[in-house]
């Protein structure tokens, strides 16, 4: 009797934090995990593939932690239709967070696989600071991942009080998708490559900016990364510029201000 009551209480407290929103063909689950917030998009039919997202730097004063990501764009929609689970963590705190962020992503992986079964293929995608985080994960010798796509990777970022060193020996394929104005850091990383299992690859997006890429460019690069992991072959030094058609404005004007 006491054991049954304990189970009921545990389920009650879990339900306080967990929320499910049902969409067309998939569901979005939000929960709390080891001090972080997590968001998971789960398709109705699973393929055994999992994509884990690593977000970029958020200032310490940003307030509440957030693991939100868009499932509406072409990138997420195509993966969800193909049966990919997509998961994101807020990390346990805002600000510069590297080694703890790696651990938080690994907590997320265990959580997802505990609920939906062990994934056959797990990929990583991160932008800015997130690009550095997944590079660190790609260099781990006990690697559980198939490939990593880093967008505008902030490869020289450091966390106060902790020295982070890259070993330039990735154990899985890394594709750096980088704007033409920020090529130096990934070029330096690739030039220093040594003794890894897969040579990292740089694709250039022919526009200026930081993480200034769109869904079509990211999808094309990600599909090439998956093929690289499966076949060992990829086009190196690819240049991309896919212009997106502009949709209707979502701006609303009230009292002289745009919202």
In helices, the fraction of residues equals 25-40%
Q: Outline the biggest β-sheet.
A: 10 strands, mixed
How many extended strands?
Answer: 12
> What Rg is obtained from the alpha carbons, in whole angstroms?
19 Å
In spatial order, strands of the major sheet run: 1-2-3-5-4-6-7-8-9-10
Helix tally equals 6
Mean pLDDT across the residues is 91
Which stretches are low in confidence, meaning pLDDT under 50 for 5 or more residues running? 6-15
Proportion of residues in β-strands: 15-25%
Q: What would you call the structural class?
A: alpha/beta
Shape: globular
What oligomeric state best describes the polypeptide chains here? single chain
Distance between the termini: 55 Å
Q: What is the element string, with H for helices and E for strands? A: HEEEEHEHEHEEHEHEEE
Description:
Strand 9, helix 6 and strand 10 form a beta-alpha-beta unit. The relative contact order is 0.11. The protein has a 10-stranded mixed beta sheet with strand order 1-2-3-5-4-6-7-8-9-10, sandwiched between helices. The longest helix is centred in the middle third of the chain and has 18 residues. It is 30% helix and 23% strand. By secondary structure, it is an alpha/beta fold.
């Amino acid at each position: 009797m006491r054991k049954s009551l304990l189970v009921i209480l545990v389920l009650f407290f879990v339900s306080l934090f967990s929320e499910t929103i049902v969409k067309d063909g998939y569901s979005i689950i939000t929960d709390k995990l080891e001090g972080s917030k997590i968001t998971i998009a789960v398709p109705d039919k699973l393929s055994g593939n999992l994509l884990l997202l690593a977000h970029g730097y958020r200032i310490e004063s940003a307030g509440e932690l957030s693991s939100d990501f868009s499932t509406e764009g072409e990138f997420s929609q195509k993966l969800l239709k193909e049966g990919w689970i997509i998961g994101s963590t807020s990390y346990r705190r805002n600000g510069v967070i590297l080694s703890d962020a790696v651990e938080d992503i690994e907590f997320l992986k265990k959580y997802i696989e505990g609920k939906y079964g062990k994934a056959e293929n797990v990929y990583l995608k991160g932008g800015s600071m997130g690009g550095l985080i997944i590079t660190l994960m790609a260099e781990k010798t006990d690697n559980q991942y198939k490939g990593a796509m880093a967008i505008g990777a902030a490869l020289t970022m450091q966390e106060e009080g902790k020295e982070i060193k890259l070993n330039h020996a990735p154990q899985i394929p890394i594709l750096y998708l980088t704007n033409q104005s920020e090529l130096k850091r990934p070029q330096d990383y690739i030039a220093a490559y040594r003794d890894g299992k897969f040579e990292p690859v740089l694709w250039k997006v022919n526009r200026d900016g930081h993480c200034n890429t769109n869904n079509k460019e990211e999808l094309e690069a990600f599909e090439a990364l998956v093929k690289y992991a499966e076949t060992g072959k990829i086009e190196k030094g690819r240049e991309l510029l896919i212009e997106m058609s502009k949709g209707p404005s979502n701006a609303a004007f009230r009292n002289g201000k745009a919202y």
